[in-house]
Design a protein that fits this description.
Pfam families: WD40. This is CTLH domain-containing protein. Keywords: Repeat, WD repeat. This protein has about 475 residues and is of the alpha+beta class. The protein is built from eight helices and 30 strands. The strands form eight sheets. A four-stranded antiparallel beta sheet has the order 3-30-29-28, with no helix packed on it. A hairpin with a 5-residue loop joins strand 4 and strand 5. It is globular. The N terminus and C terminus are likely disordered.
């Protein structure tokens, strides 16, 4: 994975790791014709250690000794991550029940692992710079094992890469022109059937995506007195939350287009909103630096969270793991907090630049952060929090997103009136979509039609983009 400016070479860059498809192709000489290879690569890059080992064992024609060696590298990476997270019991379990049973006769290596566990204060891992360096070394070794195992022919690798690229949006299919001011926010519903848009005109419009891909106006939602800064769909797509900037949150019925409830709090204003995974509650960011949970139907505040570190809640996202609800919020201008609502656990992501917005992947495991200097940073937030990639090339404070076929793309707006699209894993800037005549403020992928992308601009319009297979299906502007 990698940073990307105007360089045309597909590149991957992890922590301390840099390689490209050309290098990978040259190093992979023999043929392994197995679909599990692609899954294995993806799992390694996403940090899903246990699943990657499971898939590794399914790859046909792989030598058992190579599997053991690669498993050792993967499990050591997992082990160091657990110790760094202070999950000592889990680390001990990984060492004794996963690494040692591999029966790799390397006493010095095992002693080093044990020494790191028993005397972490004497090991360079606990010093932030040295710890990062050590993890980078293990990441390099891990990728070296991947090179050795996945000896794919260069042609197969290139064909697979371009097969994904061909599914990136490349044609403007439709222009929506109902808003009277700049577009602030776009969000497709979970089923992909609807698109909600907000504008500085204080209006929210619900659009319906027809079976032929055409987008048509369904409802115009009026009632907010300030521009709507946040939109959130219920998981059934039956209802919509909208939050006016420093105002109130409104809940709308999509079938009728009517407002069914207003959530407000005396003495303060709301700045962001999100649904709980079970749709029984809503969460709101408040301008008094707190996050509140409300009962959906009665509108009662059930719980409120606030701490001394928080200087403001300007953006909010909700995901869940097997254990609890995870609240993701911008708590300081350059800091994002991951807060376990039930356990009260906290993890912090600190950036060097001001965070302008963020978006979560559909599964809640990846976090894409937009920064004031135009960079996008992709983080894994499932378990051991770590940065996966940086994307460069655009100049805009915009809402970016992850999406497309197999969530293979990163999309962002720019002040140059273009939409930028990167290949997520390689970091290659693969497309600049031209169609707006003002800065592009927000983009959003249709979750069920990976070829469809929407972008909103200062020119008051929304562009609907499609891939090569849809290129001839251009519709009249709405």
């Amino acid at each position: 994975m990698g940073s990307m400016g105007d360089d045309k070479t597909p590149r991957k860059r992890g922590k301390g790791v840099e390689y490209d498809y050309e290098t990978l192709g040259k190093r992979m000489k023999s043929v392994v014709d197995d679909d599990n290879v692609d899954s294995f690569i993806r799992l390694i890059l996403e940090g899903n250690w246990d699943e990657s080992i499971s898939v590794l064992r399914k790859i046909s024609g792989t030598d058992e000794n190579a599997i053991k060696s690669a498993s050792q590298e993967i499990l050591e990476h997992k082990y160091f991550g657990l110790v760094c997270e202070n999950k000592i019991l889990n680390a001990v379990d990984t060492l004794t029940n996963e690494i040692v049973p591999l029966d790799i006769n390397d006493r010095a290596r095992h002693e080093k692992l044990c020494r790191f566990l028993v005397f972490p204060e004497k090991d360079s891992h606990v010093k932030s710079s040295s710890k990062k360096s050590k993890l980078e070394d293990h990441n390099k070794k891990l990728l070296d094992e991947l090179f050795k195992l996945l000896a794919l022919p260069e042609r197969r690798l290139v064909d697979a890469y371009h097969g994904v690229i061909d599914h990136a949006p490349s044609e403007r299919l439709q222009v929506l022109q109902e808003h009277k001011d700049k577009i602030c926010f776009l969000r497709f519903s979970h089923s992909g059937k609807y698109l909600a848009s907000s504008s500085a005109d204080c209006i929210v419009i619900v659009w319906e995506v027809m079976l032929d891909g055409r987008v048509s106006l369904k409802h115009t939602l009026c009632g907010h007195q300030k521009p709507v800064s946040c939109i959130s769909w219920s998981f059934s797509d039956a209802q919509l939350l909208t939050c006016g900037l420093d105002e109130v949150v409104r809940r709308w019925d999509i079938e009728s287009g009517q407002c069914v409830h207003i959530y407000e709090k005396s003495g303060v204003s709301l700045v962001s909103c999100a649904w709980s995974p079970d749709a029984k509650y809503i969460f709101c960011g408040v301008n008094d630096k707190s996050v509140c949970m409300w009962d959906l139907e009665e509108g009662k505040e059930l719980e409120c969270w606030k701490d001394s570190l928080t200087s403001g809640i300007s953006d909010l996202g909700i995901s869940s793991n097997e254990r609890e609800i995870i609240v993701t919020s911008v708590c300081k201008e350059n800091m994002i907090k991951l807060f376990g609502w039930e356990s009260k656990s906290e993890k912090l992501i600190e950036e060097d630049q001001t965070v302008t917005s963020f978006s979560l992947s559909e599964d809640g495991k990846l976090l894409l952060i937009s920064l004031s200097n135009g960079e996008l940073h992709l983080w894994n937030i499932d378990g051991f929090v770590r940065q996966l990639a940086k994307y460069k090339g655009n100049k805009c404070v915009s809402r970016s997103c992850i999406g497309g076929m197999e969530h293979a793309f990163i999309a962002s707006g720019s002040e140059h009136s273009q939409v930028y699209i990167w290949h997520r894993q390689s970091g290659e800037l693969i497309s600049k979509l031209v169609g707006h005549c003002g800065a592009v403020n927000c983009v959003n992928w249709n979750p069920t039609n990976p070829n469809m992308l929407a972008s909103g601009s200062d020119d008051c319009t929304i562009c609907i983009w499609g891939g090569l297979s849809q290129g001839k299906m251009k519709y009249h502007s709405s």
